[in-house]
Write a structure and sequence with these properties.
The two termini are 32 Å apart. The chain has one domain. It is an all-alpha fold. It has three helices and no strands. The radius of gyration is 17 Å and the shape is elongated. The longest helix has 21 residues.
């Protein structure tokens, strides 16, 4: 008997699920391509973890652009889009 594949949902059930799926895809890609992504500081943000990057206007602009590009690329890679 031929088995039928389970149909994929077109959309996540909730916004929380969409965030988790996006984060999971991003982490998988970051682990496979570590040089493409900035390292995560060992200090929490409230303890100065990203201060070297965000203390300058250029650093803040770079971080904002990086996140924008990252989320845009994740949206374009989504199998449901």
């Amino acid at each position: 008997m031929k088995q039928h594949p389970v149909p994929r949902r077109n959309r996540p059930h909730s916004l929380a699920e969409a965030f988790r799926l996006t984060h999971e895809r991003w982490l998988n890609r970051a682990v496979k391509n570590p040089r493409r992504y900035p390292t995560i500081p060992s200090l929490r943000v409230d303890a100065g973890g990203f201060d070297r990057l965000t203390d300058t206007p250029l650093g803040r602009a770079w971080a904002d652009q990086w996140w924008s590009d990252t989320f845009r690329s994740m949206e374009s890679e989504s199998p449901n889009s």
